[in-house]
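New to this. Help decode both lines:
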Amino acid sequence: MRHMLNRCVKDLHEQGYKLAHINGLKPKHIHVLVELWKQQGKNPATIKNYMSKLRKASVLLDKPQLVKPGNDAYQITRRSYAPTHNKAIYQVDFTRCTDPLIRLSLEAQLLFGLRREESMKLVLSEAWQGNCLRIKPSWTKGGIGRTIQITNDEQRQWLSKAAGQVATGESLIPVSRSYKQHLGHYQVQIKQMGINKCHGLRHAYAQRRYHELTRQLDPQGRGLVCPIVGGKSSKLLTADERMLDRKAREILSRLLGHARIAITKIYCG
């Protein structure tokens, strides 16, 4: 957050507003920043992320009136969660990753749907609780903790392997590195593997889990396939299928660490 706030002050300086410190921020400056970000072509999701950080800063600065509670007041376009193509990554040659801890993190993203940061900050000795992983809020984006059920042998094999490689009480970040340093090394590793972004591993988990959940909830045991991989769109679902879809998405949103069911559209269509 500090880097982003310093960037805001610098941007305001370039716009002619001479702030000596972040404490000098006023409501008019927020409007200036939003308009600047729009002019720079930043997408609505990025701008909303910035606004979220500014709201947190306003609490820390004891300036509750600094940022308005809703984004509509700043005419920020509502985000569309409908994907245009499937971003899932199902096939990865993990043997091309030469760093054992980064390989574990990549595998955890695919097997448990963890975000990149979560897959590194995970302290396995604390998270692994028998038949589930308990993800602490301090490891997550937005501070939303969650419980992920262990449902297959591949996950159990990974847990046993990881437990043998990582000491009790340690995360998947080497003790000799900070998170920032390890993230830089991570980027080098995935580039060498021929991968640009690994968020698609999480998409693959979500799509697989959606089908498993709908099959478990379906009295006939058939389940549904995600629209993004060729399944029915919501408009074509029967009433019973729509109920399955809704229940599965509610569970899936929690498994992914999201508070809103609408975000499952990004992963599943």
Summary: The chain has three domains: 2-74, 94-198, 200-268. The longest helix spans residues 199-217. The CA atoms of residues 215 and 223 lie 4 Å apart. The beta strands are 132-135, 146-149.
